[in-house]
Amino acid sequence: MFANHASPSQAYARVAVETGVMAATPHKLVLMLFDGALLSIAGAIRALQDGAIATKGEAVSKAIDIVANGLKASLDHTAADELAPRLAALYDYICARLLHANLHNDKAALDECARLLMELRSAWEEIADDPAAVSPSAKPS
C-alpha cells in the first residue's frame, strides 16, 4: 500500500546526516553547510558533463539554497567588525554566479564557485584549532 521510493542506502545516508546534525557543534554545522554546497556543485558539474540539464538545475538550486539560506543566514551581524557584511556580499556573488552557471551551462562559473567555497571552508576549518577564534570568550588553558 505504501511504496518506499528511497533505497536502503539513501535512507541510511539520510539518517547518518540527521544524526550528525543533531550532534554537531555550531562550528561543525557550518562546515557541513560548506560540504553540502560543494557536493551539490560537484553534482551539477557531473550532470552538466552528462547532458542531464534537469539534474544540473536541481543541484545548482540546492547549492544556491545552502549558500543563501544556510551559510549567509549563519553570519553574526552583531559583531563590530566588517566580516559578516563582506561574507554576505561574497555569498551573494556566489549565488549570482551559480544562477549564471545554471542559465548558461557555464562550467567555469561552477568551478569558480567551488573554488571560492573551498577557500572559505578551509579558513573556517583552520579556526577550529583556535578556541579563541570560535568563541571570543574562551580562555586558553
Verbal overview:
This protein is an all-alpha fold. 75% of the residues lie in helices and 0% in strands. It has helices at residues 8-23, 26-50, 53-71, 83-104, 107-126, 131-134. α2 runs antiparallel to α3 (53-71), α3 (53-71) runs antiparallel to α4 and α4 packs antiparallel against α5 (107-126).
Keywords:
mainly alpha, about 75% helix, globular
Task: Please give a quick description of this structure.
The protein has 141 residues and is an all-alpha fold.
> Element order, helices and strands?
HHHHHH
The low-confidence parts are 136-141
Q: Note the overall shape.
A: globular
Give the total of beta strands. 0
What structural category characterises the helix and strand content?
mainly alpha
Gyration radius, in Å: 17 Å
Main sheet makeup: none
